[in-house]
Amino acid sequence: MTKVLLEISGIHKRFGGLHALNDVALTINQGEIYGLIGPNGAGKTTLFNVLTGLYQPDEGKFTFNGKDLFCQKPYIVVGSGIARTFQNIRLFANMSALENVMVGRHVRTKASVFGAIFRPPQVKNEEAAIRARAMELLEYVGIPHHAEELACNLSYGDQRRLEIARALATDPQLLALDEPAAGMNPKETEDLKELMQKIRNDGVTILLIEHDVKLMMGLCDRIAVLDYGKKIAEGRPEEVKSNPRVIEAYLGVAPE
Amino acid sequence: MNLINSLPRKKGTLIAFCLLLLVLPWMISSGFQSGSSYLRALDMALLFIMLALGLNIVVGYAGLLDFGYIAFYAVGAYTYALLNSPHLQAMLPSWMMYPPFVVSIVICAIVACVFGIMLGAPTLKLRGDYLAIVTLGFGQIVRIFMTNLDRPINLTNGPQGINNILPPQFLGYNLGKPIEWFGLQFEPVHLFYYLILFFCALIIVVSIRLQNSRLGRAWVAIREDEIAANAMGINTRNVKLLAFAMGATFGGVSGALFASLQGFISPESFILMESIMVLSMVVLGGMGHIPGVILGAIIVSITPEVLRDVINPLQMAVVGRKVVDPETLRMLIFGAAMIIVMLVRPEGLWPSKRRRAELRPATKGIALQEKDDLQDAERNHD
């Protein structure tokens, strides 16, 4: 029996007159790779921002792992186990790769101001554990040799990897990736696919936005399609591919 | 980080440096004619180091531009003065008056911290220029309050300021009078030097530790990209408030020491110019880099004092008579020097690796890129 990890229903988000999300509902099961596709401007990233707490939805329901996360602050969402990456990479450009990942540990560590100033043994241990875990994650995504380099000096593909490592540092149950393969060559895309499968096999559920249809078909367990802020289809990749509404949304209606 | 790692290796250097700091006042007071005024300048430099390190947390780490920082210095100074002078004796219950020195300092730190949060809370959503304007206003408000709170109840004694502030009493010693130890005569100005040096060292250690903690990283993360920091689960509201609070606390301690050193304070000492001086120490030295900020504080606070002595002989030697009022010329030279430094080294005199990387290769990279583009364009043209 698969366990439902994330469930949203009736989500609406308006920006002035623009109805960016209109009655969107979806459920993500534990351990799957769930894809989200749609034409440009369909509301994919808006939905992402709602799911990660950066936008507050106007109405709807949002539960994660049995916890109500409707209109919660991002740090609570992250604390509950949802981590994300960004479409246009948002690393801390002038921090080293290692420090970037160490920032990701913030939400799982506790040292207060006084802890930081007086450095009792538990704070020292915590600090050492942060460093060790960050190094481990850099190895996990395959860029340990860049640990001391500034994030802005990494190659594009490595920056993507670093962003994933930083998100993984928050110990997420759901990892939300916003177009991780954008701008990558086929080789890099293939490596990224392997990395995502590895992450899934290690027990992290993945929510993925991507334009690369071939990648999505080969990788996702289920796919939802958004168009004009509405979910128009959901299901296994092959079902979605042959769905007439999806074809219409992408290609337009065939003339009579 | 580097400082800590290299400590064991450079232990000898460090000990030598500490010894130098300990004997420095003696060298200065015996080496120069106007020794004690230099020693006072040195005391002030140490106070400014504390201020600059406090502002460094707000501006250098968290990237929150603060033009009213001197307000916290003022709050610390006034709190100390009110507790340790006869001014409010009639109003305050006697158990509140003349607390032990350490208690005074702690109270000043806490009061300044509260003011820091008062400034931080309403400005959480502001950044850059907008924040700068609000903080500018805050600095002015605090100063104007201090000038005008002599009515309806005389709280701050208005523009006249508060005098007769008691010098610190410490383990039975009164730091306001010369003390004899081991046959050496310690003048108050020496004693204050050691006292301020101690607090300065304390603040440097606290700064380093905060920088290398998860909170220090969170500050830098907010400066680098607030949205990403948010998405990484950093409670940006609390962490920013903490930056304001810590910065203000450092300022408050420094202000309290200033009041105890001077024995007299007035709103004059807390004008906008002082805020700008502290900010220029941070920027000139190297934002976000502790050794750089210390260097900046020393240079910006000492140079005008040195120029004061040098400027007149220099004028006489070059032109043969007094052409410009020495006070004007002094600030003119100082200002010009700062402009030149910022043009030549925009990243500061002693920047962190991070900041150097931010400002140097980037510009070079763009320049190279433009050159390449130009060459491409020429080639295409042919």
TrEMBL record, chain A:
The keyword Transport applies. One of its GO terms (molecular function) is L-valine transmembrane transporter activity. Residues 6-253 form the ABC transporter domain. SMART domains: AAA. CDD domains: ABC_Mj1267_LivG_branched. Keywords: ATP-binding, Cell membrane, Membrane, Nucleotide-binding, Transport. The keyword Cell membrane applies. GO terms for biological process: D-alanine transmembrane transport; L-alanine transport; L-isoleucine import across plasma membrane; L-valine import across plasma membrane. One of its GO terms (cellular component) is plasma membrane. PANTHER family: AMINO ACID ABC TRANSPORTER ATP-BINDING PROTEIN, CONSERVED COMPONENT OF ABC TRANSPORTER FOR NATURAL AMINO ACIDS-RELATED. This is Branched-chain amino acid transport system ATP-binding protein. It comes from Formivibrio citricus.
Automatic annotation (TrEMBL), chain B:
Keywords: Cell membrane, Membrane, Transmembrane, Transmembrane helix. GO terms for cellular component: plasma membrane. The keyword Signal does not apply. It is found in: Cell membrane. The keyword Transmembrane helix applies. The chain crosses the membrane at residues 12-32, 38-59, 64-83, 95-118, 130-146, 191-210, 241-265, 277-307. It is a multi-pass membrane protein. Residues 369-382 have a biased composition (Basic and acidic residues). Its main location: membrane. One of its GO terms (molecular function) is branched-chain amino acid transmembrane transporter activity. Residues 361-382 are annotated as: Disordered. Pfam families: BPD_transp_2 (PF02653). CDD domains: TM_PBP1_LivM_like. This is Branched-chain amino acid transport system permease protein.
